[in-house]
Each structure stands twice: as C-alpha cells, then as structure tokens.
C-alpha cells in the first residue's frame, strides 16, 4: 500500500505514470487490470503503473476525485492527461496515450 506522499513523489520523479484505482469487491476491476497492465507494459515501457485499493486508501481516491471504480488516471510530466472511469476498453486507453507518449519519448 502506497501513501499519498509516495504517489506524489512518483508523479514528480517519473515522466509517465498510470494510477489504477480498484477495490477487492469489483469484478470488473480484476478482469480489466491484467489486460490493461499487459497493454501498457507492451506499448509504453516508460509508464510507471501504480495500483490503488480504494478500500485501503480512501483518502488517496478522494484526493484525486475518484468516486467510481475502476478508474484510470494517466499523468504525463506530472500533469493529468487522461481519466477513464467504469466503461473503458484497453484499446481505447492505448490509443489515447499513444501519440503524446511517442512525442514525449521519441
């Protein structure tokens, strides 16, 4: 379990970060996460992936205004670039990230 301070440090130190908010009771979260992580690791090797269990860290979810799960936040250069909640496809997420990621890391 990470603290808010650790997550904020990661956002400052890493150029690309994905925060994945879920909970143990969320079946969609558990089905989506391995596919999403695999796609991100395959296509965007510089992205740091941080998983946040909102049942253990509700203050972190609150800090980032996450009120539904699963929620995915992608930060590029410390700024929120993409926010997806509930209904998302892996392909949609990958395509949303591809162009800015290629510009940053080419």
Automatic annotation (TrEMBL):
A Pfam family it matches: Thioredoxin
Instruction: List the InterPro entries hit by this protein, alphabetically.
Output: Thioredoxin-like_sf (IPR036249), Thioredoxin_domain (IPR013766)
What positions does the domain Thioredoxin occupy?
8-81
Write down the superkingdom of origin: Bacteria
What Gene3D superfamilies does the database record attribute to this sequence?
Answer: Glutaredoxin
List the CDD domains. Answer: TRX_family
Question: What name has this protein been given in UniProt?
Answer: Thioredoxin family protein
């Amino acid at each position: 379990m990470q603290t808010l301070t650790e997550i904020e440090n990661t956002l400052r130190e890493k150029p690309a970060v994905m925060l994945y908010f879920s909970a143990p009771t969320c079946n969609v979260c558990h089905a989506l996460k391995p596919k999403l992580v695999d796609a991100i690791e395959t296509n965007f090797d510089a992205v740091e992936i941080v998983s946040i269990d909102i049942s253990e860290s509700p203050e972190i979810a609150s800090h980032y205004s996450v009120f539904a799960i699963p929620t995915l936040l992608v930060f590029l250069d410390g700024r929120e670039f993409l926010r997806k909640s509930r209904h998302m496809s892996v392909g949609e997420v990958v395509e949303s990230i591809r162009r800015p990621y290629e510009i940053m890391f080419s």
